[in-house]
Amino acid sequence: MQSITTSSYSVHFNDLAYKALNQHLDKSGYSTLFILVDENTFDHCLPGFMAQIEGDYHFEVIEIEPGEVHKNIETCTQVWGALSELEADRKSVLVNLGGGVVTDLGGFVASTFKRGIDFINVPTTLLSMVDASVGGKTGVDLGPLKNQIGVINQPVMVLIVTEFLNTLEERQLHSGFAEMLKHGLIRDKGYWSALKSLNNFDLIDEFIHDSVVIKNQVVLQDPTEQNLRKTLNFGHTLGHAIESYFLASESHETLLHGEAIAAGMILEAYLSQQLTGLSQTELDEIKGTFAKRYPKVDFSEDDIFNILGLLKFDKKNSHGNINFVLLESIGEAVLDIRIPQDLYFPAFAYYKE
């Protein structure tokens, strides 16, 4: 697959990824290569990755615990401490080998250590390949609140090696697939239709490339999320609130990001039908598509009240207003929509039907 050029770096795929990495390392003159992994990627991805690196370099591996619950400033402090103890300097590079937690957190750590060192992202989950690979968003959660602390800073390069997907459970693949479906909903009805008919993940490589192209087109036009880039947040206003609530709850099983966003997209599609012209036919099509792939989340009335209470923390908010991205139709998104309070519970009722 052809490499994709962003505003300041390239996304390379499979064999071209390792070729680009080795060429870069050969000419970079890095003092030390630090590789950030979690327990899963240490076991399943690191050996294969290391086997592809040519040349004699000074390596250090830093391991963190897996999962969204560890995407916080405390983990950052541990990684900063490890970098310092291992004598990292400003000519070091941090290679983030893992899913979205590793790439988001690792990018933030690198961006702030000694006021910034180079980092390279090697996403190993479908979600991180299609979502975190482009845009330069780095950061961590504040308690259960998603991505409240961070900076936009670009990696040196991103390497997408799709064989890493073989290490994932199907549930993780479906989580990433939700973000791909979102790309179709906000930008490309034909892409949405093609993804809808995909019955397994054997042919996913080209679709990953297409999703990265779509996201890159958006980010190139609006790198700092002033307007168009907000469309990438469709389903995320309610979806992030759902994810945060279930992450903090002791009585509910934690949801994967894509599972929460899938629910958020159904809810926000309902709001779109009520407010911005999405047809009933397309609303039902969206709900049916997600219902086939994602188990229904059970929301009690108390759950809904608590989820709605978290909306005030959404990053798109301004001047005390909660701003939604909604759809005019499949493939056409509209920004900064305010939701009447009396529509939230009907949206959840539609989701439950």
Automatic annotation (TrEMBL):
Any one Gene Ontology cellular component term annotated for this protein: cytoplasm
Domain 3-dehydroquinate synthase C-terminal: 176-317
Top-level taxon of the source organism: Bacteria
EC top class, as a word: lyase
Gene Ontology terms: biological process: aromatic amino acid family biosynthetic process; chorismate biosynthetic process
Protein name: 3-dehydroquinate synthase
Gene3D superfamilies: 3.40.50.1970, Dehydroquinate synthase-like - alpha domain
